Amino acid sequence: MQEEIERTAAVRIHALEDGNLTEKAKKLTLWALAWPIFIELFLQFLLGAADTLMVSRISDDAVAVVGFSNQLFSAVTTLFVTVASGAGILIAQKLGARKSEDARTIGIMSLTVSCTIGLALSVVLYLFPKQISSWLQLPDELLPLAETYVSIVGGGMVLVAVMSALSTAIRNTGNTKGPMFIAIGMNVVHVVMNYGFIFGELGFPEWGLKGVALSTVISRLLAVLVLLFMFLHAFVRPIRLRDLKQFDRGLFGEIMRIGWPLGVNMSCWVFSQMAIYAYIAMIGSSELAARTYMNTLESFCFMLGYSIALALQIQIAHLFGAGRMREAYKTAYRALGIGLSIVIVNAAIIYMIGKPVLGLFTKDEAIIAFGVSLLGLNILLQPGKMLNMAIQNALNAVGDTRFTMWISLGSLSIIASGVSYWLGIGLGWGLTGIYIAMILDEYVRGTLALIRWRGRKKLREAAGEMSEGNVSASGIRLEA
User: What is the distance of C-alpha 432 from the center of its chain?
Assistant: First the structure.
């Protein structure tokens, strides 16, 4: 009887997959995937800009603490993003290969494992905020503010872990609009609460940086609740709460095979950024604040390009899973060309309007001067960043994550961390020297990734495996 039920369920699932196949293919164009991701990233940018602008009304020291803390949070999130990123790529590949039950199980495991890691991180950040900030060379005068902000926002790191797992799974099913709408709601709540807590308006107490931290945690909690509801209905067969205990060792092994190099890759980048922030902190608090403001401006420059890179990864993973190798290969170049055009224009616009924009954030002439001096270098930085993002994402989508890990280990350790210290601190070039090292790092990693992609190693291997397994007989196209 049980076997009959399982067979009936399988038939229904395959029927639903067949019925949705044409519709799904239409949805997975680069633009259809990219524009909701862009809106989501743009809203996250607005969230960061609103945070920075509002926090600047407290003090430049508060801005420096927020920028420093965000680098710390980015570093610790790599532990659960490793699982979420590997799961996302596999979900797209499995759906491309029409294995929806495997995709569903992968999404469930990503959520439960990420939540467990997030809880552990929340405990550590809540209990030891001052010690961690001091260890990372934050100036002593900023430690009291950091203790407040890191303990509250870091204590809610489990929410970031759950958000990452849920939104990544949903997005890789091809539904990039859902996370976008949730980002809209989260941003509105966050900005309104920021305004209330900072200025003591709308019935809120005037809590300054503490209020900003609470606003961040509350808005994330609301987003998690809505994302969870959407996640339960993201696959062909809805997920029930009791299904959250599912665990498949074989599929989890596949997640980690793709995911752990991604985690190392991301860790290398984040820790290099933390090293750079530590170098800047050694130079002075004004330079640290200037770098935080520049992060906001740079986010605007590359976020549309990054949305294209993320959409590219989803699209190539689906094409790769479906055996459409030639189409996957060409898609990367088309996306790269579009992305380069966009980031160059954006960087040029920011260069022209940079000084008055920086003036909205701070009246400190030294900080504005530091920021303006970097805007010209930013025009050189952004094309290298786009090259790196697009081609590395393409390689990740086909499972070539170990290669991207190795080039990141080398370049980020030697160039981004080592050369930036040599130029910025050793030779005394300051922020200019650090930016030169950042530019060099992006172009080195991007060029190496491009050479690897042109070799089509993973695409040829997959096509050969399909051919040997007579996959073509099942209707999957082999395009070497």
Answer: 26
